[in-house]
Amino acid sequence: MGWRCICLLLGAVTAAPTGKVRGRRAAADTATAETAAADIVRRVLAGTPTFDDERGAVVVPAGPDCTSALNEAMLAANSAGGGTVATRDGAAYELDGPLNLLSHVRLRVGRDTTLRFGYSAPQRPPVLRSAEGVVFHGPSPLVRAYRTHGARVEGRGASSVIDGGGRAWHEKNAMIGSAHRTSRIKEMGHEPSEHGRVDQRTPPTLLELFGSTRIVVSSLTLRDSAFWTAHCVLSYGVLLENIHVDSRGRNTDGIVIDSSTDVVARRNSIVSGDDGISIKSGRDAAGRSVGRPTEDLVLMDNVIVKASAGGVAVGSEVSGGIRRVYALNTTITKATIACYVKSTPGRGAYVQDIYVRDVVAEQVKECITVNANFKNPTPKPPPARPARPTDFRRLSFEHVLCRSSADSRAINLAGRPSYHLRGVRLADVSVLGEVRKALAIAYATDVSIAARVGATAFDLRNVSAEECRTWNATT
Ligand SMILES: *[C@@H]1O[C@H](CO)[C@@H](O)[C@H](O)[C@H]1NC(C)=O
Ligand SMILES: *[C@@H]1O[C@H](CO)[C@@H](O)[C@H](O)[C@H]1NC(C)=O
């Protein structure tokens, strides 16, 4: 966390030892949000591509040429107007290049089958991809849908595995240091033109849907990614379902939804070396030039088994805007911050209408954090460009239960002096554990909090904070 307020400790506003605390406006908001979320799910499901089961499936055997055999079979299926390409059950495929998922193709991963990518797999001419909110040319994602329409990647459950071979990348990166790579991405964020944005050191995402529509990824394990694991960017109408992510290296966010519309991610389980589920929309000038928001997104019934950073995270790349995100029924067994909304001064755009409901989180340090001052040291923007604030508005967290494993501040809401957070509502939030530091609010307007932290109940109605105000809890 990059910000901390150092100021007077005020007493708890209301100390009510018993009784459930609820926000007054919960009912109306809940109904509206649930209707909106149900509409999105209906739209996405209605548009998913269907394939005749087994009929005409081309089965590609494992073997030294399986990479080109799989790609050729997908090309043939695509040329024939659609079809299924399948791998065998109980087989091990060693891949030495990326797989390109084409329109109207279903790629099937067999039961007890592993598709393992070697370290050199993406060492091909650089392709157009996207990382940390910047579209650039770099090593190809391992499974790549680029401008693909109506396709599926599906397995037979958790024993159908795509293994990114990330360990070799992580070892290599530890050797060369990731500092160079990271600063190159950040520099590229200030380059509005895509030409010249080349970075061959950013490791490949395991699976990337780029500029694609009507795609389903379901019922498989995505293991050991070198970088973000499943990334949906500039895409529309996507269903990510029953995916088991198991990635432990640095920067291996589980599921990243980026500048995309109408996306449903449900019933996934995630182990991630960074954020579990991450919602983004572009970085700085590069992100503004693309200017595509992430909107109409439903996250439902997901389990974050372990995330090194946020369980469910929004930002900090928000330069295309993020709105109408519904995160319903999330279970987190370990994360640093359960619900994490963040931006960096200069990112601009907005984060609006975020609705989080039914979270149970164990072993977290912080429960809910909204931070407009996330320290992500970006090289300074050229002085001619003003530092743009992000407009945070209407953020709602309802029925959230966190068990904190550290004496960190349980709830943190921090805007900017020149740009307040507006309309933040916490209803029926409970933080259990030895939590003394309950709550901090800075530069925020129209904040309502019905929460219990440790033994202390808070009932704040429409408060504003010009400076930083903090509240402690009794334990
Ligand atoms: C919440 O999600 C979990 C994990 O997917 C699932 O087991 C549970 O049934 C869901 N709860 C409800 C009320 O749908
Ligand atoms: C909260 O207070 C602000 C001004 O202090 C007012 O504009 C806003 O309408 C109030 N909101 C509610 C829900 O009462």
From TrEMBL:
Listed GO MF terms: polygalacturonase activity
Signal sequence region: 1-15
Highest rank taxon of the organism: Eukaryota
Transmembrane segments: none
Keyword Signal: yes
InterPro entries on file: GH28_Enzymes, Glyco_hydro_28, PbH1, Pectin_lyas_fold, Pectin_lyase_fold/virulence
A Pfam match: Glyco_hydro_28
Keyword annotations: Glycosidase, Hydrolase, Signal
Annotated GO biological process: carbohydrate metabolic process
SUPFAM superfamilies in alphabetical order: Pectin lyase-like
The UniProt record lists the keyword Signal: yes
Family of this protein: Belongs to the glycosyl hydrolase 28 family.
Record protein name field: Pectate lyase superfamily protein domain-containing protein
Organism expressing this protein natively: Pelagomonas calceolata
